[in-house]
Amino acid sequence: MKFLVCISQTPDTTAKISFNGDGTEFNAAGVQFIMNPYDEWYALVRACEIREALGGTVVALNVGPAANETTIRKALAIGADEAVRINADPKSAAFTAKQIAAYAADQKFDIIFFGKETIDHNGSEVGAMVAEYLDLPYVSYASKLDLNGNVAAIEREIEGGVEELEVDLPFVLSAAKGMAEQRIPNMRGIMTARTKPLTEVQPVAFDENSKVVQYTLPPAKAGVKLIDPENMDELVRLLHEEAKVI
Amino acid sequence: MVLVFAESPRGQFKKAAFEAVTYGKKAADILGVSCVAITLGSVKDAGELGKYGASRVLNVSDNAYDHFDSQAYTSAIADIAKQVGAKLVVVSHSSTGKAVAGRLAVRLNGGLVSGANSLPVVSGNGIRVKKSVFSGKAIAEFELSASVNVLSLMGNAVKPEVSGAAVSVENVSVNSQKGRVRVKSVRTQEGIVPLPEAEMVVSAGRGMKEPGNWNIVEDLAAVLGATTACSRPVADSHWRPHHEHVGQTGIAIRPNLYIAIGISGAIQHLAGVNNSKVIVVINKDPEAPFFKAADYGIVGDLFDVVPRLTQALKKFKSQG
User: What is the rounded distance in angstroms from the CA atom of residue A35 to the CA atom of residue B33?
Assistant: First the structure.
């Protein structure tokens, strides 16, 4: 079995979000970066668990600059066997997908894993795009994955329920809560991560057809209006007359 | 031409389909073109989409589409997009739409905005559309410059609007790939508005003390017609089912009204709910961080306040 886990680096959940003067670039000054939680907790950990049970190789892949290597080493510490960094500063999901697809095209991965979305652009785009480039089935929002020979049994979250399905290898998957539990790298993992192979790959050319022209911050809340806990009629009145939601 | 894929899980449209067609019609008016809807599989009352602004409703009636497969759906929608000369393809930002939007963009060599929440604006090089990014902490405006572009529309971003009359459904055939995903079963909770679609959500956290106390939350939700939700610690302790968990790792929602009961408002929780239009927080701790994100706050014991609010709402509803 050969698994590819695509990991993204995102600002920490608690990071204060700001942009440069004209609102065209994210301001990374003072921001702590982490591995995208869905990629780490669900996709990477489940890939490692299956490798531990059935054997094989887990390759972690990141499209990003050399500064991302701390995050990539963490993936190796958690359990990936080797890593690949495609040396580029991605400007769009489409760019990232093109790079991953170009790398994976001739590698014969059995499953290509993603997290369900990144916590910065929240797009849930890259997995679907990679699947289309490689002409593979795509199962998104998977909350359970088991392999039985060449067949994967998967549960997938849908609106108000769960879909149970089967698909033959190879395929592309995005992982959601339920897939696995977060793993904290242990000392041995951290030590061995230093010597595991991390290969740098050069990006392929890509013509962008979408770009962010402006970032803005949402209008600040007016501030909370406190209501007397004895007077819920007043809250009902405000929800009806002022907020107009009931 | 704007092409809208109106999804019909288990043969029926839900609000997402009517929102997508309403959006498609408004976008078509802005771009000076018409709006065409496409449906896949056996669908009840497909012609109803005309009411929301589709000038034509196309259906590929092959029952192979009764179960979702992203490849089969993508190839069918892309084939129709080429047949009708679509400039813009709109899908819902749902479990279905999210899995086809990226594929469609690649297949049509188009630009993509995933989770769009504003109408397109015509700009020099194409169109501009906004979406929420950084888990609700910022807004990004995209410019799409390809000859055909794809949008997935965030739920509750537009309200379904009737602007016309039902039309007759045209059966069409497509040159499509066969799906390779085999759906074995679908389990859904019937009679409940799923959280991503809910306009009103009543959510509770550890302040409830124990799962046996949830009747006051359910009573409040019932009088509002709201869907119930919970915080992560509550789901992790199995007080409530996991599908009720809203927040960053659970479900992200954007209802018109979100009532948070006994939830302190950790940043991970806020990331999943901060796009709600109006937030009401009930908490006995005046220092709870959630009050900073709230529109209305009640500092008090939830076991007194929640039943009182339920009574006040009953009174309001009975007055009509």
Answer: 43
Interchain contact, B134 vs A159, CB within 8 Å: no
Q: Give me the residue from B194, B305, B313 closest to A159, CB to CB.
A: B194
* Residue whose entry in the numeric block shows the structure tokens 């809807």: B37
Q: What is the pLDDT of residue B94?
A: 96
Q: Would residue A240 count as lying in a domain?
A: no
Count of Cβ atoms closer than 10 Å to residue B203 Cβ: 31
The one-letter amino acid code at B28 reads A
Whole-angstrom Cα distance, residue B95 to residue A160?
11
What is the distance in angstroms between the Cα of A114 and the nearest Cα belonging to chain B?
A: 13
The total of structural domains in chain A comes to 1
Closest CA to B140 of A29, A23, A97, A20: A23
CATH number, position A7: 3.40.50.620
Chain A residues close to B188, C-beta within 8 Å: 158, 160-162
Please state, in angstroms and rounded to a whole number, the distance separating the CA atoms of residues B20 and B91: 7
Q: Six-digit token pair at B61?
A: 């009636």
A175: in domain: yes
Identity of the amino acid at B305: V
Q: What angle do CA B258, B261, B265 make, to 5 degrees?
A: 80
| ipTM over the 0.90 cut-off | yes
| Statement: residue A160 has pLDDT above 90 | no
Nearest CB among B74, B295, B308 relative to A243 is that of B295
Domains of chain B with bracketed CATH: 2-171 (3.40.50.620), 195-318 (3.40.50.1220)
Residue A226 resides in a domain: no
Is there a contact between B257 and A243 if contact means CB atoms under 8 Å apart? yes
Residues A179-237: tens digit of each pLDDT = 999 999 999 999 999 999 999 999 999 999 999 999 999 988 889 999 999 999 999 99
- Average pLDDT of B114-142? 94
Report whether B258 contacts B282 (CB < 8 A).
no
Domain that holds residue A182: 2-219
Query: CA nearest A175 in B: which residue?
Result: B249
pTM equals 0.94
